[in-house]
Structure formats: C-alpha cells, structure tokens
Amino acid sequence: MVPNQMAAIASVPKLCLHLISSAIQRCRMSEDICRLSVALKRFPVSDPPVIGISISDTGVGSCLEEYKDLRYSRDCPSFEKWDGELSVTTTSIGDSEIYYYHLNLKESVPTNRLTALPSKSKNGAKFCGTEISLSTFERMDDLHAEITHFFQKVLILKISNIAVELVIEPGDILESQYGNFIQANECNHLPSPMSNIECLKSGLEDFVYKHGNSLNEKCFSCFPNRREHLKVGSGLACHAESQRSTEHVMEAVIMISEASEPSSSCSSACCPKTEVLCFYDFSPCAISQSSMNALISIDWKNYGLTLRSIVDQNGSALLEWEDLPTYAHIDIIMIPSEKRKTELDKNLIKKAVTLALDDLKARYTGLLLSAHALKLVICSYVHDLARSITGLILSSSDSDFQKECLSLLRLQSQEVEGGTIEGRIKEKIISVIEINDRKPQRSREAPSFLFDNDCIQEQDLQEEEYEGEEALNLFYQ
Fold first, then answer.
1. What end-to-end distance do the CA atoms of the chain give, in Å?
2. CB of 200 within 8 A of CB of 333?
C-alpha cells in the first residue's frame, strides 16, 4: 500500500501525479483554504506539438527534500518525450524571498541535478506557494484523461481545505480555453465531527452517484432512491506488533449499488468488474503485493460472490465477478490510517475487507448470503415454511395460542392478516439464516433448530452460545 518513493518514475503522466500528490500534502499542512491548479497548454507551432504543464498550489512552501529521490527511468517508453527538466518556484510564509530552482532528472551525477537560480524579494508581502513546470511531447488527451481520473479519486477523500482547478488550453483556437473547476471541500456540508471512515463512506457514495465523479450532479435516472439502490459496509482492523510499537490500522469501505435500468450513456455504471481504490497519505496510490494477496485469500463465496479473476492493471487491482446481477456494481476502498514506510500485513488488510463484508451482511437483510443460505431462500424453503406456519396460526381455534404467536411476532390483534403474518415470519427466518451464515463453517447449526431454544448446547463455546441466543432473540424483537 505504501508507494516506493525511490522507484523511478515510469512516465510523464505518472510524474505529474506524483507532483500533484506532493502539492496535496503541502496544502493539507496549511491552516488556510488552498488552491491546487493544474494547467495543460498546447503549443501547436512545433511538430510534434509541445505540451506545457504547470502544477501550482498555495500550500506551505516546498522542501527540496521532496525532489532528491525522484528518478526518471531510462527504460520507459516516453523517455524521449521529455528532456527531464523541471522548473521549481517556491516560497514559505516566513520567507522574505521567492526561490527558483532548476532540476534535471536525467542528470546522472547527483550533485549536478539541482541548480539554485537567483531569488527575488517579496518586498514584505506575506504569501506562500509552489509552482512546478515542465514541457513534454506527450499527447494532450492522455495527460488530460489521467489527471482527471486522479482528481476524481481524490474527491472521495473530501479533503476540507483544498479546491482543485484543471485548465486546458488546446492552443489552436483562440477562444478554446476551458476549465474544470472542482471543489474538494464538500465535507464542510456534512455533520461534524466525522470519523475518517464516515467521511470515506460519504465520499464513495458521491463517487458512485456521479458515476466515478464524471458528473457534476447525482445521476437520478440510475439512482432515484438512495435506500433502495445503495448499500455500504465498513471495516476497521487494528494490530500492534508490541506494546511499544505504533498500532497499525487499515480501513476498508465496500459499496454495492444496483441501479435502475440505465440509459446507454450510463452503461459503465453496471460492470462486473471492480477497481479497488487504494490511498496513501491522502493520495491515490498503486496497490501493493500484500494487498493483492489479501484480496485473493478472501473467501468470497462465503458472501455469495464468485471471483472470476483478479489482475494488477497499471497499479490497480481489477476484480471480475461471475453472476453479478445485471445492473449491480461493487466498489471497494482500502486506506491505512497512518503513514507507513513498510507494507501492511496481508492478514490485516484481509481482516478489514472481511469486516466490511460482514458489516454489509449485518445491515441489509438477505444481502451477501453464502451459496448454501441463498439456496434455501431461492428454493422457496423460507416462503413455504412461512406460509405453513401462517396457516397453522390462522386456522387455530385457540385464541390464547394466536395471541402468543402475535406477541412473538410483535403484531397487534388488528393486524391478523395472512400477508402481514407471513411477511413477518419470513423476515424472521431470513434473519436467523443470516445469523447462522455469519458463523464459521464449523460452528453452524442445523436449520432444523432455528425455532428451538434447546439448539444451544451446553458444550458450545461462550461466543457461539451468545450468537445462537442472538439469533433466537430476533423472534422476540
């Protein structure tokens, strides 16, 4: 999960994302509202056209340590599309001058890579910020797409003090300049204070509603009703190697959306593939091998999901599902809660994702049932059983028996209708199936004991006994 700062930058677009991530950190360190601006300008007079790139922010000033480990790989396909040079302009709030530097990432001698240029006085003004610029022969469309996709992920985090601006200047038409202005401080409109995981839930919800933040507003044609179309679960796993060591924390959020039948323009919202979004230090990052191993090791079938394949696609984990409902989609976010210099343990990551799946099962009746439990429901065992019990209650001439049954079902005497009683019994049976389904495979009870208090055996472990009683108590709620 932790990006390798020492690794060589593989392309100009990846370099831009790295520089934007650094700008995000400088803005987060500031106590003020900050602007992060990225400008792409095309100069068509050259052949091929040169693209000028500017990344600027009004956060705290830049530290030269940020650039000492940057390397540009000579083996990358785009090595010849960039001269390796960066121009850096920066100043901190307490500085009396603006500092200028020239950085050449293709320089093989480390001491010759950074050159300090003459500085300029601020004349007593108080401001701070950084601008980094470079030129490349990369295609404008490729740069635009990658940076936009990056910002769409960043918005999930709802960073409260950063506004993002992306400006494109094609250069071939005088009036063709346009901007894409995105406010990244939507968390201010949410109840405060909010935990990090609640903020992630809210950000992912917006991400799904806006089809990956490609829209400015929620897509009401796909999601007319939040409660019906969006289900979310979260998990937080903690581990400390020793009493003196820092506690390691991993958070995961999983959202299952089932849209109404979408229009052709929204077809991407219903895809049997999931891109697992990973973040480090408030920026999207490539998925680690330990995270890939954790995702592979999860028993997805225990949650009614069949994983067809999992691949590492350009640093992102892409999960493909089998037999996912036609208009359903699954989104997954994983994020560590603190800075780390080493990869998180596979078991910690697996636990966080598993807890998020368990949270979904607990919150939503009938969701993520295992194949066995789902078979019981699909084969109408539940429906048949509920109908039979309803018939016994309604056909009884014993009024005390009927009153006791209604009391167990939390129904009033005026609600004695076949449909109402059957629906309540069906709901209770499914809840018991879910409770049993959440237990480890070795400790699951036989379905024949679902209505029997004696199903809790004295030799059971205390934890299993508590879970069994919880299942039975559902009939008295």
1. 43
2. yes
2-34 pLDDT tens trace:
444 445 677 888 899 999 999 999 999 998 899
Of all residues in the chain, the percent with pLDDT exceeding 70 is: 75
Between the CA of residue 303 and those of 101, 234, 297, 353, 359, what are the distances in Å? 55, 15, 13, 12, 11
What does the alpha-carbon distance between residue 318 and residue 298 come to, in Å, rounded to a whole number?
Answer: 15
CB atoms within 10 A of CB 39: 18
Query: Mean of the pLDDT values across residues 428-438?
Result: 74
Q: Tens digits of per-residue pLDDT, 165-196?
A: 888 887 765 444 545 544 444 434 445 567 77
From the CA atom positions of the chain, what is the Rg in Å?
28
Decide if 210 contacts 151 (C-beta within 8 A): no
Gap between the Cα atoms of 295 and 278, Å rounded: 13
In 278-398, which residue ranges form alpha helices assigned H by DSSP?
A: 289-297, 346-363, 371-378, 381-395
DSSP conformational letter for 286: P
